[in-house]
Amino acid sequence: MTLPTDEDLTDMPAPRRPRGVFRAAIVGVFALGFLVGAVGFVGFLSQLRNGELNPSAKADGIVVLTGGSSRVADAMELLAKGYGKRLLISGVHPTNGVSDLARSLPDSEKLLTCCVDLDRSAVNTRSNAVETRRWARERGFRSLIVVTSNYHMPRAIVELSHEMPDIELIPFSVIGDKWRDEPWWFSGPTLRLLLSEYAKYLAAEVRVRLADAGLDLTPEAPAQQTEAPRKPARISAN
User: Which of 65, 108, 144, 185 is the most interior residue, by most CB within 10 Å?
Assistant: First the structure.
């Protein structure tokens, strides 16, 4: 029997790792990513209010971000109750004016004339925040009540607090009829909406944190160039 020499051992090929190990590593990474995403989604849902509560305090101004059920009507009601001195409606279509609002909210015509400002430049949540910052600073406001849908509030607060770190933000979450009528986990469209909003919320969080660290990967563009123009919206849908 001849024993292998050191030279023979050096020439022997190294044993190959089984492919199953590589596949298991990939599955493990995907499983971990899914677990982290699921935990994050639960945390996101925990931020959403299930009922409308009066703001915790009055503020200098009120801002409502258009795009969801009854947002503008609820903001006008807060203004009428004296929760703020003025109201900014951010994201109004360029062709809509005070007269269009008055037709949809006839009981609020006096307030619309005296105490409401329209922002027609914003086309998304980020530009909502930029225009709100400009409006608040022009008027010297130090506190704002933020009115938007409950599912949209976390992302809105991220964007607004990034643009206005020195202004107190008081959330007022609007609860849509669909949210009241049926649990979100039984509604396919609502679940898809929540997942989509969660993804946008994560993207906003990452962008804002990077910007705070001095790395702004998506510098702000003029509002007119960030998205295609919105279609005219009736106030009942805002």
Answer: 65
The answer to whether 62 and 136 are in contact (CB under 8 A) is no
CA distance 65 to 60: 17
Q: What is the CATH topology of the domain spanning 61-233?
A: Rossmann fold (3.40.50)
pTM, entire model: 0.78
The answer to whether residue 231 scores a pLDDT higher than 80 is no
Terminal Cα distance for the chain, rounded: 89
- Residue 168 phi, psi (nearest 5): -75, 130
Q: Is the pLDDT of residue 134 over 60?
A: yes
Looking at the predicted structure, is the pLDDT value of residue 18 above 70? Answer: no
Least confident of 6-10, 151-155, 197-201: 6-10
Short-list 138, 130, 95, CA closest to 222: 130
* CA contacts within 13 A on the Cβ side of 23: 3
**Alpha helices (H) along the chain:** 6-11, 19-46, 71-80, 98-104, 109-115, 125-139, 153-163, 177-181, 188-212, 223-226
